Amino acid sequence: MIKSISIKKVTVSILAMAVLLSIVTGCGKKEIGVDAKSISQIKDKDHFFKEEEIKGVIEEGSEDVYLDYVGGKIKCVYLDQAGKYKFVSANTDGTIDKSYEIPVSTNDKHAFFEMDESENLYMQYSDFESEESSRKTGYYLVKFDNTGKEVGRENLLSDTPEKSLFSVEGVVWTKDNGLIVSSSRGIEKYSEQDGFTCIIEPKFLYSFSHGGELIKGSDDRLYIKGNNNDKDRLWKVDLANGKIGEPSKCFRENTAGKLLFFSRGEGNDLYAAFGDYIYGYDSKEDAITEIANLRDSDIGFGEGIGRFTAINEGEFWATIYKDNGEIYLSKLTKVNPEDIK
Questions:
Q1: How far is C-alpha 174 from the geometric centre of its chain's CA atoms?
Q2: Which residues make Cβ contacts (< 8 Å) with residue 205, sequence separation at least 6?
Q3: CATH topology of domain 102-247
Q4: Are 49 and 294 in contact (CB under 8 A)?
Q5: How many Cβ atoms are within 10 Å of 33's Cβ, its own excluded?
Q6: 3-state SS string over 93-150?
């Protein structure tokens, strides 16, 4: 009896294997699925990167807020476990150039940061009455010099009725126009001498009820990323003519439902990261080209890329989520296909 059962098991196993092979090969050369592609197929690609975790720049258990590449150095702002914002400037070898705690007491753990060419840091934040309260006491734009000393402050609600709905969705620095702020008041230019000057009226911001998130590409080209139902769309911003261009078609087609992060950088008009991929964006052709495939590169992580900054097509710095939800700072460098196991 034992012997006959063993023979049956072998027979069933052989039949199961035959069925499996017929499913894979198909009746007439069906293509193998993406998850089963061969090593030779993968290594024909030119999208491989190696990863180096950079320790000591961001404290463990912190939240990332800002990441950029300015003046040949990596600039980062993070929120530590004690609720304090900290700034770090790091060299591209991972060593710290300088760091300081940002001297702002706020009950709101959300803020925008931007840095100009002189390494002055701009912070836009809103403050609440307390950690438990939902009542905001003000919106502020603060300027710090390159040592972390506060050198300027502006109340963004000084000319706005107290009970009106107001929200800021982006702050970017441009060479020609200085600081640009996107909010429910539209897209405005800010200077210490003249205050805020409206460039694009709110009525031109389509469905961006709060102004839309500003994105800075190469050569100071500006874009606006939609929120709410348009979170996966991207529009060109025409500051010279005070208009918003047509939306990009390629991002909605390729990134629907995914978190999108953008960066300027040498070699492309814009870089986009979502999930396991980094793409280069050509705004003239409205087309994206795959630059990096982190899963094919054997870079394993939990939820993919968070914020990132592009040095060029061969080097990226990114905050990457671990399986437990925490982040770490990583340097991604392009390698040859034969260097990947």
A1: 19
A2: 186, 187, 211, 212, 224, 244
A3: Neuraminidase (2.120.10)
A4: yes
A5: 8
A6: CCCEEEEEECCCCCCCCCEEEEECCCCCEEEEEEEECCCCCCCEEEEEEEEECCCCCE
For β-strands 49-54 and 327-334, DSSP reports them as antiparallel
* Amino acid letter, residue 128: F
pTM over 0.85: no
Dump pLDDT digits (tens) for 8-62: 333 333 334 333 333 333 333 333 333 334 444 445 578 999 999 999 999 988 8
Domain limits, the chain = 48-74+257-341, 102-247
- In this structure, are residues 255 and 261 in contact, taking their beta carbons and an 8 Å threshold? no
Residues for the chain: how many in total? 341
Report the candidate in 228, 208, 286, 224 with the shortest Cα–Cα distance to residue 254: 286
Residue 7's Cβ-side half-sphere holds a number of Cα atoms within 13 Å equal to 4
Residues 6+ apart with CB under 8 A from 163: none
Which among 180, 236, 243, 231 is positioned nearest to 207, based on CA atoms?
231
User: Which residues are registered as beta bridge partners of 190?
Assistant: 179, 196
